[in-house]
Specification:
The protein has about 230 residues and is mainly beta. The protein is about 10% helix and about 30% strand. The chain contains one helix and 15 strands. This is WxL domain-containing protein.
Length: about 230
């Protein structure tokens, strides 16, 4: 076996020396080949598919705490496809206020940008004051804390992600939640909320000592603008 190795090494060495001993002719020809791809226009006449905030390659499984929410039905090149209704359960009135986490299991926002120009966009949110359904009593002192957010996209998207902005949103005030600078946030993006029990989406209400017991509802006003701000 040892002799075989020496013989092979000798043959390889001889081949190298023999090859280097003769001048070579180098061809200066150039050759062009082609890359081909077919592109089709995206049909903006149908709403975009709603995706799972934990795995955007899957369809949205629904949220038992947000039944009947099938998305916004928006169509076009830049759309707010889905926003969750946030539920915070039933709690006792406490002196000084309360801080309560959302009960949603699949709370999220879905945005799709099919414009192709890379101009970017901004998502804003204003949580309105809460109003009692029976007493019309209002709660104006407080804020919505979004908590730990998860930004995800389908696996076929190659765009860079948008950037998270404010997490603490005062009642009655608009603030930026997501911003897609130029050439980011293309295709579909999911902002998953209330996915981390260590930092959940939380409603904080202050100075509610004199608030009457009731079922309180406050609008979440979402705004998607066609440029970063």
């Amino acid at each position: 076996m040892r002799c075989s190795r020496k013989l092979i090494s000798g043959i390889l060495l001889s081949a190298i020396l023999s090859f280097s001993a003769f001048p070579q002719t180098i061809l200066a020809n150039t050759l062009d080949t082609h890359a081909n791809v077919s592109l089709r226009a995206v049909d903006p006449s149908d709403p975009n598919k709603i995706r799972d905030p934990y795995d955007p390659d899957l369809n949205y499984p629904g949220d038992s705490n947000d039944p009947g929410n099938n998305g916004t039905g928006s169509v076009g090149q830049l759309t707010l496809d889905y926003v969750s209704n946030l539920r915070f359960g039933t709690h006792s009135i406490k002196q000084g206020g309360i801080s309560v986490p959302a009960t949603n299991t699949h709370a999220m926002v879905q945005i799709t940008d099919l414009r192709g120009n890379g101009n970017g966009w901004t998502l804003q949110l204003k949580p309105e004051a809460l109003v009692g359904e029976q007493t019309s009593s209002q709660i104006t002192d407080g804020y919505l804390y979004l908590g730990s957010e998860a930004i995800r996209k389908p696996s076929d998207s190659v765009s860079d992600p948008p950037i998270t902005q404010s997490k603490r949103l005062m009642l009655g005030e608009f603030d930026n939640v997501l911003k897609a600078p130029k050439n980011t946030g293309l295709s579909t993006w999911i902002l998953g909320l209330n996915q981390n029990t260590d930092s959940p989406t939380t409603l904080v209400l202050n100075n509610i000592d004199a608030v009457q017991p009731d079922h309180y509802v406050g609008s979440l006003d979402w705004s998607l603008t066609n440029a970063p701000s």
